[in-house]
Amino acid sequence: MNTPGAFDIGPLTWVKGEIELALGRAGAALKDFSGTALSASAGGATSPDLAQLKLAQAHLHQAHGVLLIVGLDGITQFSDCLEQVLGALEKGTLTFTPQVGDVCQRALEAIRLYLDELVAGASDQPLKLVPLYRELMVLRGVAEAAPADLFFPDLALRPPRREKEPTALAPEALTARLKAARLGFQRGLLKWLKGEAKGLTEMRNSVAVIEFTQSQPTARAFWWIALAFLDALIAKGVPVDAGAKRLCARIDAQIAKLLEGSYSVAERLVRDALYYVATSTKTTDHIECVRAAYRLADLIPSASAAA
Fold first, then answer.
1. What angle do CA 143, 147, 151 make, to 5 degrees?
2. Residue of 63, 80, 61 whose CA lies nearest to 12
3. String of DSSP letters for 51-79
4. Alpha-carbon Rg for the chain in angstroms
5. What is the pLDDT of residue 233?
6. Alpha-carbon distance 253 to 246, whole Å?
7. d(CA 270, CA 31)
8. Residue-wise pLDDT tens digits, 98-151
9. Pairwise CA distance, residues 121 & 7, whole Å
């Protein structure tokens, strides 16, 4: 995974010509397919040239594979989405229209332009592609694509050390504390879902208890981030949408895993929490600490533009 704001363009410059060639060939093949598809839909004698569509898929897949090697997670996710759209056209689960062809051609061009900007010194900020990514996801049947799909902070980073580490608890005492914290979190979540704002504070207090029991940076990191996410909700800096509610439910499930002795946290869960922290319109000292530790400002186009 590349470090935000400090992407090494060396490997990209070595393969950029290969990627551009593959994208160009994919666009040309897609254009040829589009012409035959439109002719067929207008009552022409020929059928859509699926061979050209498969050729477009093959060239895009080649470019996608090179992007994977380079390590550009966001643009790779974007190209994978486009590849899925072409696959749906080939399978017949998506009907070709001029609008579909336009979205696909714009997506191919967006990949090329994004790489041009990186080589020219721009930061790796795939969130700039969210509007077009959403258009692609609509073609795949997903009405509300999550912007965090294109959000890839460096999860190898860690919270700063505490000034004083807490005293380690005996296993029985730790289990009792975690059970009480989960109960408090669930009670707070239920209150919040019923419209009681104070439920969020109870949820945060419970997560703070959990975070304080974690001495290892890798085990502590998610809970430290979750505190900032809840701060953003309390401060009304992020929308109370279905995604935020699902994230709270996923935090509860993560507490259950912790009680079972599992300290592993899914990468997507951490990324989603960090996305809300990064995009919160309100801030606290803790939110700022998390933003600084994970260099989140480097990933937000508007933040970089204002810098």
1. 150
2. 63
3. HHHHHHHHHHHHHHHHHHHHT-HHHHHHH
4. 23
5. 98
6. 10
7. 40
8. 999 999 999 999 999 999 999 999 989 999 999 999 999 999 999 889 999 999
9. 9
